[in-house]
User: Fold these one by one.
Assistant:
Number 1:
Amino acid sequence: MNERVAIKEYLTQCAELTEASLKKSIPTEWDVPDRLREAMVYSLEAGGKRLRPALVLSAAEAVFGKPALREAALPVACAVEFIHTYSLIHDDLPAMDNDDFRRGKPTNHKVFGEAMAILAGDALLTHAFHLIPQAVRKGGISADAALAIVEDLAKLAGAPGMVGGQVADMLGEQGITSISELEYIHLHKTSDLIVFSVTAGGRIGGATNKQLELLAQYGRNIGLAFQIQDDILDLIGDEKKLGKKTNSDVQQNKVTYPFLIGLEESKAQVERLTQAAKSAVLEAELLAPERLLEIADYLVQRDH
Amino acid sequence: MNERVAIKEYLTQCAELTEASLKKSIPTEWDVPDRLREAMVYSLEAGGKRLRPALVLSAAEAVFGKPALREAALPVACAVEFIHTYSLIHDDLPAMDNDDFRRGKPTNHKVFGEAMAILAGDALLTHAFHLIPQAVRKGGISADAALAIVEDLAKLAGAPGMVGGQVADMLGEQGITSISELEYIHLHKTSDLIVFSVTAGGRIGGATNKQLELLAQYGRNIGLAFQIQDDILDLIGDEKKLGKKTNSDVQQNKVTYPFLIGLEESKAQVERLTQAAKSAVLEAELLAPERLLEIADYLVQRDH
């Protein structure tokens, strides 16, 4: 991955590295009930963009100046994917969104049953925290840095973070009337895990506190832009490229950015957030900011 | 807590310390949706023996030789109670045991709904890992020790630990025919979190690897003894003292130790496990092993 490749190719390479690492992430020597292991692996290997792991790798590289440190960054990249995966399994449950399919495959509880899906989610969430200490062993980051990453993840994925966003989304269904309520949901449900990814990468690369704060700003902005872009694509995207039906938000009466502020203003907002994200990265004076800048643009230009 | 008090009083004091600490364990300045915070606190404050936190405190004290280190041990004691609490909330869900009451109070999902109960469990589980780094800040244990505690908790509460035991229990319902299957369930579903409690306490107290291994043996044995004693009390206990109906295992056709090996042999097994636990503690040559020895006896002699 040293030669200069286009951003799409770069993200594909990050995804491949992540997937190879995910395959080895639950020790084979552990005495885990077969069915539980299957349920965990089923959702871990169900695909997706692996965007969050790519952000861990890219941020580490941006701060450190070259694509080293991968032995430290990959366990953390896997950890965030474990968290993301558990959150999708629990979101899909009958008591929550009650979805039968995700990315064209039956959801976890449709295959393994509801009880197993709850437990597989719990096990994935717990295992994320087993992966982070390995960054010390494999990659030589300090125990202090790894512990800060543990603390960040527990906050950003927990009650004041992703879970809080999920709760606000659930409680607010239908009843949201203001942009600030919608923003709270997206900042926590989506941005917080992206903020974790870039700041954890930053910690691995040896970022200063100032740089970490600017990386967090970058994460908050691209997370929000990503979410608004999702809303826009649901309205005007190409079903073939998206791999799912459009207009589902309208049909479900979901309150979205385009619903609240209109399509054109939503597009303008995505543009503003992307610029703000890039400004934060530039202000951080990182040794190799290019990939983070390219990812910000890529997320807006994507059509799926 | 320096003066010598009886074990029951000592455990009550540990529980009070834990409860005071639990009350402060979710930062008030965090922007958490009110209803989520209520759901988390509802189950955290629903009582229980607080046995696992007491084991963290006792093991730290046993290794260190005196009841210092409490500023380091209390965040970890709370962490294990957060894990225990989340596991009860998820166990009680309709898709799992479908229980309406626990300790005489309506279960979490009966009060807050199923979706919120799932999310409150997720948030409690995640927050456990936010508490452990505080042992470094508040109590001066090393980042290396805290990170080892994180790694232990993620293993012992995760797929090869408590969740694995829960899955085995669920899959094995009705179909268990051997002691070894039943032992697998209890060792993971019950003992693993007790093993975590005593070894985490040991790490805080500065235990050697040999001492940690012996503390783990102690934990495995008292965990199993505790579980068999539960089965025995369900058969021959006093409903008033237990605060619940006896013979529920028989009515639910649950496979228990008395069912498999008979009541007398179960009692003998509890005695053997207790002795083995005490032998391990004595072999560890701890500076103040008394409380751990007393707890092992207390758990067998209890009538509720």
Number 2:
Amino acid sequence: MKSVSLACGGGGAEMNALINDVIFKCFDNEILRQSNDGALLDFDSKKLVFTTDSFVANPIFFAGGDIGKIAACGSINDIAMMGAKPLYLSCALIIEEGFELANLERILCSLASVAKDAGLCVVCGDTKVVPKGACDGIFINTSGVGSLLDESLPASIKRLKSANPEKKIKILLSGDIGRHGAALLASRHGLQSLLSSDCAALNTVVESLYDAGIRPLAMRDATRGGLSAVLHEWARVRGGIEVCEEKVAVSAEVMGVCELLGFEAYELANEGTFVLAVSEDESQNALKVLKEFNLAANIIGEFCADFKGVRLKNIYGSKRFLDEPKGELLPRIC
Amino acid sequence: MKSVSLACGGGGAEMNALINDVIFKCFDNEILRQSNDGALLDFDSKKLVFTTDSFVANPIFFAGGDIGKIAACGSINDIAMMGAKPLYLSCALIIEEGFELANLERILCSLASVAKDAGLCVVCGDTKVVPKGACDGIFINTSGVGSLLDESLPASIKRLKSANPEKKIKILLSGDIGRHGAALLASRHGLQSLLSSDCAALNTVVESLYDAGIRPLAMRDATRGGLSAVLHEWARVRGGIEVCEEKVAVSAEVMGVCELLGFEAYELANEGTFVLAVSEDESQNALKVLKEFNLAANIIGEFCADFKGVRLKNIYGSKRFLDEPKGELLPRIC
């Protein structure tokens, strides 16, 4: 590889290669290599969660949201996925000369409203304007800071990796998949559809899980690369994962877009749907909490020691392996 | 104004209008309105400094630095300017499809090396790749987290505003001005020159000031809009500022570029030069510390109660008012 390809931003194998071979090499340190959604840091005597995300979504307005809403949800969710409460957000804008002020206001108010509903606000920012043609419309970066809901038990790849190998670990999914990716696809292809992005802040459902005494080993919002990318990442960390296909909810509208355009729902991005690894004894309680927020939530599978990769099992008992997402068919999904 | 103009990113009057009339309106909160380089936040029982900056510099490599170096210095300096020690950095990349991997590595290593020298590291990140034409090369966002060097006395606009009106406040400058802007100008116009950007991390000099017992009322690195933008911002907060022109160091090379291309050195961006507001009794000590780092440092002026705006006085005693930077002659300086 001599140059960066679109696939390097797709959330799949090529992105992992870029991150591991180039970025981690330059920024080499233990915290980064833990590969969580956010960094878990020492600050004074407390743990601090710190995260960053840039957003280049296109179109900037779509059914169920806009780039401002994703920008707020993205960093809020990255913090929530560590088992933490988001406290503060930053917002840095790169705007193309000539961008309509009315659209800018609409986007920023959307970002601010998500932040407000999640109980936090934008405390610092930056504004750059570039000449026409130097960026396409608007790009937004949000970074966020939060504190752990349970200092002794953050949700993390490390905890998932080191959990007792004798204990069964269940995999839960908080809702139906693929709505964000399918909504953007539909809007790009001018398809009439009832689809709407699942874009939403996940801090409230995560706090409810912790309030109910559940301590997920790991959590991940299934953004770029979709459910498939999360399952493959976890399978690399802890061996095989078996998923019951019929437990994974996919709406008829998402199915329709997938069939029409040749996509796999497992690979479509979500912006308000997450995957949880929970010990078996907590799994029924966790499902009960998830279902209070979305009836489509389910226990979709479990970790297995006897094979590697991600295996799908259907109701007839037949099994197939799910490929890791590769390439980039959907650039600028977030 | 119906759309965003290039001038809205220039660090002058138009940018202030965009920030005050649009961005602050959407994100309305007290912390943001304090208009510091970073936000001063409560975290547990400690104060936490949080800052963000996006970088769109063009060219990406220039005499004295590259976009990676500015990206690291930018956030480190924003934290240092609050009287704080930078602790952690994030790095979010937006890369154009086809960007050369060798350039990416060079930029990231440059960023990492500045961070390392400043005693911190990049702990979280994000990578987005956009199709050819959707962004020009590479844009980098860094956000940063730090802790105050003196919890009771942060450097801030608020402290500058509320300082005893009877006490004289001196204005110091840490070095000669305009080198970053002039170096980028020279390279864009293909001028042969000895110019090199002043791009540098300022955390060490700030820590030395605090170690020497100095507690600046406010500090600001003179980036977009240059020295002029900082002086005007402070004059709005606390009345008039008088500057002795001959105390402001400008190198012959910067002078040359300014004369050739019709720029004002006061308005050219710096990336490693900062302005300090210090009470008169601390000013000589502060100067001594600054001179250990750069002999061009000087006490350049003071706040005056009897006029508004920024007034320049030359050695012959004649006085003229310095205009606030307006328009945008130098897009993508950082």
